[in-house]
Amino acid sequence: MHMPTFSAQHRTAVETSIEVVSAVHSSDLDRPTPCSGWTLADLLAHMTAQHRGFAAAARGRGADPDVWRTEPLTAAIAADPVGTYTAAARDVLAAFATPGTDEALFALPDFGADVTVVGETAMGFHFVDYVVHGWDVAAALGTPFTLPDDVIAAVTPLTLAVPDGDFRDTDPSPFARALPQTDDDAFARLLRHLGRSPDWDPIPG
């Protein structure tokens, strides 16, 4: 029994997302985000629902589609975006820290019908998501976003393993098509691979 080699770095990424979200005020919730068509409220509802879904999956209840739904979170996010998000983030960290979770099977219906993967793989998916979603929130707020070098090094092979292709043009895809690589910065390269422009601005032009 072992924890994934990236466990510490994953925890740092999620804790960094908590720190970024702690700056959100209710007045920010209508801000645009790098996720096309999503306001900050939409993004936080998605992030919170994913935490809840992955936590449920770690506890053997991921096959229930209700644990992944964003709709029940709308009012809670509007009333208390920071508290609602933080509680879900802390819960998934606790669920992932349970011994044996890396070897358990995670049902991930949000990723496709009948999708089941081993825990370590599921944790890798979650790690990639919260590295990029932490940046998404910071970009929407216009605040800096920095991750330690060891976190970027740990998430890089997982991120570059995310395939590109036509499927990224479909609504269920969490990432847009990869953008041309024009940066030397390691984190910028990851963002571009996941379809984000490191220079994204909420006010184009």
From TrEMBL:
One GO MF term: metal ion binding
Coiled coil residues, start to end: none
Pfam families: MDMPI_N (PF11716)
Residue ranges constituting the Mycothiol-dependent maleylpyruvate isomerase metal-binding domain according to the UniProt record: 12-138
InterPro entries the UniProt entry points to: CHP03086, DinB/YfiT-like, Maleyloyr_isom, MDMPI_metal-binding
Signal peptide boundaries: none
Protein name according to UniProt: Mycothiol-dependent maleylpyruvate isomerase metal-binding domain-containing protein
Organism phylogeny: Bacteria, Bacillati, Actinomycetota, Actinomycetes, Mycobacteriales
